[in-house]
Amino acid sequence: MSDFLKRVSNFREEIFPSHSGLYRKLAREGQQPQALMISCADSRVMPEVITQSGPGELFVCRNAGNIVPPFSTMNGGVSSAIEYAVVALGVRDIVVCGHSDCGAMKGLCNHELLAPMPNVAAWLRHSQAAYSIVCEAYPEELSSQDKVRAVAMENVVIQLDHLRTHPSVAAKLATNDISLHGWFFDIETGEVQVYDGAEKRFLVIEGEKPLPVAVSGRPTPHIMDDPFMALAAE
């Protein structure tokens, strides 16, 4: 811990003074982050570094496996962070970011590793669908490394589906006030791939091209017939 304390001291003495105006503004006016990022707790994956975000720009929720439990199954920290970011902070974008060499996904692929960690095993049930997809729909001859990578990518898509079950997110999607994004960070190369919901695959970010969106909002719903809509308006 002594190393961390030295860095804290260095931050306060060397780094903070040049940004003190920004911190005073944030303390006075509060935060207005541009997006919520749900990422893995892996120490090698740092959302603020990957996105080059400064203080107040990114609301971050981290957990093992970048998991979003379906709304009906858990009222916990992840669900609360999502609700707060959407309702209180008004973020217009949510990113689920998976990554290569994910320990949580390795646990899914090698269940014996989870035997001494019952809480982790229970948590990873929210990613079981990703593992099942890879087992059923991918080639059997995948190497163990490629299998973990495939599960990690499928897991991002599964968690995006879970996100849509949260009432605050569903409501904003219905009014076209929010977009959902799936990212995959390669630790070794620094490359970020983005999930294209229209093409159903991950694409490499290229220059200034518009980023694909996993799930976008839609215009005002037209599910009900006009007579019912008229009644609702009265």
Automatic annotation (TrEMBL):
Its EC number is 4.2.1.1. Zn(2+) binds at C40, D42, H99, C102. Pfam families: Pro_CA. It catalyses: hydrogencarbonate + H(+) = CO2 + H2O. GO terms for biological process: carbon utilization. It is an enzyme of class 4 (lyase). CDD domains: beta_CA_cladeB. GO terms for molecular function: carbonate dehydratase activity; zinc ion binding. Its cofactor is Zn(2+). The keyword Metal-binding applies. Binds 1 zinc ion per subunit. InterPro entries: Beta_CA_cladeB, Carbonic_anhydrase, Carbonic_anhydrase_CS, Carbonic_anhydrase_sf. Keywords: Lyase, Metal-binding, Zinc. Belongs to the beta-class carbonic anhydrase family. Reversible hydration of carbon dioxide. This is Carbonic anhydrase. It comes from Allorhizobium taibaishanense.
